[in-house]
Amino acid sequence: MIDKPGLYLDIPEKAYHGAGLTPKPPLSSSITKVLINQSPGHAWWGHPDLNKSKALEVEQSTKTQGMGTAVHKLILGKGRPLKVLNFDDYRTNAARAARDAAIAEGATPLLGKEMDRAEVIAEAARRRLADSPIAHLIGADKGDAEVTGIWQEANGVWCKMRIDWLPHAAREGGHITVLDLKTTGQSAKAEDWSRTMFDFGGDIQDALYRRGIKKLIPEARTIDFVFVVIEQDEPCAVQLCRSSGQTREEAQESVALAIETWGQCLARGTALEHWPFYEGEIVDIDPPVWRSTAGELARMRMKNRISHWQRPLDADKAA
Known about the structure:
The protein is 46% helix and 18% strand. It has twelve helices and eight strands. About 2% of the residues have low confidence. The longest helix has 24 residues. α2 crosses α9.
């Protein structure tokens, strides 16, 4: 258990994601996203300190997540252990048993061909990052990977974060740049990846991490939270992305409200009945913008068709 706010370098990933890390159930970016997008009840259900059955679940990694974890470790040099399995696929019982055993041990299982692919992606990404605006921040002697941040908010709520890459210079304050690696099986072009960022709650992660960094590094003057987005398909292009001012402002307000909500829910009790799900009243649903636009176009077509049909047949023939 960590009972003092700070930046910690050697917290195992399993301990970070498990129960009992802080004196009271901490708020993480993943739980914050659930709290904002669904309800306090859903956040309770997904938290290992509150839902004891959640703490006993064995994490299942998808193929995409496994590849992302492997690339992450190969580039940053730290992270979940990789377990290479000498099978062509997972069709046999032996292959599936080896995969499940690796997951149970806390490792990321990869077929030999998947590991080869991860090394190709990582090498390409390293080459591209060497010529990028953040090249001076990356390197074994320039920063730390998988840095755990623990802090307390004014209302007593404990929060946690897991920074992918924190440059050594960041601890001195001033202007700070922290990095978060993401891999994608689609386009990393900013206009394309922006939807992915909002879908997985990258804006919320950005806002919570900025908040934590300001708490733990008071000398920080400005903060750049940069997503390093790496394409899994060749040529394995890399796009550097960050939230705009408007995105940050909206996300920061949401995170502040989530922290207040979390504190109030904990004060009510840790049993599920104290954590409301969706509101009880009947909710009116307004059409999204795209649906309103499509509906308006459809109505215009129908009006034109009706107007055309109301013309005398002779007028059509004359035309």
